[in-house]
Structures are given as C-alpha cells and as structure tokens.
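Every protein is a chain of amino acids, and every chain bends into a shape of its own. The protein below has been through that process, and both of its lines are reproduced in full.
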Amino acid sequence: MSEIAQGGLTTPGLGRGVRDIRQSSFLLKLLVRKELKVRYRGSVLGLLWSYVKPGVQFIVFYVALGVFLGLERSPRNPDGLPNYAVYLFSGIVLINFFSEALGNAARSIVTNGNLIKKIYLPRELFPVASVWVSAVHFFPQLVVLIVASLFAGWHPDAFQLLAAVAGFVIVALLATGLGLFFGAANVYFRDAENLVDMLLMVATWASPVMYAWTMVQAQLGSVAFSIYQANPVTIGVELFHYAFWFPTTDGSAAMPPNLFSLWLPLGLVVALLVLGLGQFTFRRLEGRFAQEL
C-alpha cells in the first residue's frame, strides 16, 4: 500500500505527451511499419507510388502553368521564372509532404479506433507515426529533386542546405501540431477531417508553390502580404526554393526580403506554438477516446 501511495495515482487513459513518444520509439517504428504494410498491401507498384503521383502532379502543373500560362521564362516570355521546373517541383515535394502528413494524422485516431479500444499505448504515437510515414514518402521525392537540381546546375553551399533542413523542420512541426489537434477533434466531431481537406486545398494555393511570391506582393498591400508571408508553409516553401532553385538561377531572381532574419524564426515560433496547442488539446480530449470510438 505504501508503494502505491508513494507512486501516486494517474488518470486512466492519459499519457505524458511528447515524453511518452520519446520513451516509446520502438512502438513508433512498429506503427510506421504497420502503416506502410497496410497502405501497400495488394499494390503492384508499392513505394513507387511515391514517385508516380508527384510526377503526374508535376507534369500537369508544369504544362498548365509553365507552358500554357507562361510562368516559365522563355525567349517569348522573358518575365517568367527561370528554371520553372525546379521551382515548381521543389514546392510540390514539400507541400505534398504537408498534405499527406496532416491528412493522415487527422484521421489516425479514428482509423486506429479498434486498437485504441483494446489496449493502452501513448495515443500521440498515431498522429506522429502518420507524419513519419509521410516522411518516408518524402525522401524518395527529395532524391529526385536533388538529381534534377544537379542537372540544372545546382551548386549549393552549406547555408542553403541548412535552409532546406529548416524548411522541412518547420513544416513537419506544423503538420504534427495540427495533426494532434484535428486528430483529437475528429474523434468527437467527424466534420474535422472535412475541414482538414478544405484547409489542405487552400494551403496548396496559399503558398508560392506554383507562382512567384512577387505576384502576391504586387496584388496585396504591405500588411496583407506580411500576413501571407507569416504562414509557416509559405516560409518552408520559400526556404526550399532558396535551397534548390535559387542556386540554379542566373541571379536575376529575387528571394523574399528578411527571409532569414525575420520569417524563418517567426515560422519556427509559430510551428512550435501550434505544436504546443495541438499537444494541449490532445491531452485534454484523449481521456474519452475509447468511449467515443
């Protein structure tokens, strides 16, 4: 009895948040493997879909925007973006990671409802595992981006490589925080996953993935453009452009002002705040997951 008194009592169904994830790395690896096996069960191409889907997406956008709408620089269109193919694909790679990570994380608790009702394990593992699975799909696309950039004359310095890492970290933290928030909310309100779908549709076009940031600046005032620029996904995409696309240009292209002195720190702070909010909301709601599922 004295041992129980000394150890204290804990509320059933509540974990310790991020600390549980660190201490449950083996379970996290098992969940990632399970998700990958389930996703590609009966699939002929398997992990090759990580190349096929973004490849088709890139071709469609490149032809529609780069060729038909003239966003690519050419002798007939000197005002377009140089090496638009690299510009476009570097943005697509990161936005696809964000979309897949958040979309799957928002559904992860409901999808694993049977497992949650049978045994207890840190529930944060499910949204985090979804982000990790998306990272597994992200890195093959990153390899393709690196090879394409090398053919386009990519010669990065260490600072540009660090910018790519920073962009990925910001987007990964944001996706994890939003995944925790919407994953918990989706247990109680199934409209949450539909809201996430709309959010992802907006996110694809609300960041300079397929168009130049200068086009936005020309249409918006300074205040509205600052709000647009403060979006962590926008910051992550622009960091990827700086890392992979900017070294392949002739120097005539411009990057957003204060990208490193202001927007990178701000993007990291906002992503960490969203992660904290997601963790707080998840902990407040996870106690009744089993009953609600």
Q: What stands out?
A: The CA atoms of residues 259 and 265 lie 9 Å apart. The chain has one domain: 18-292. The radius of gyration is 21 Å.
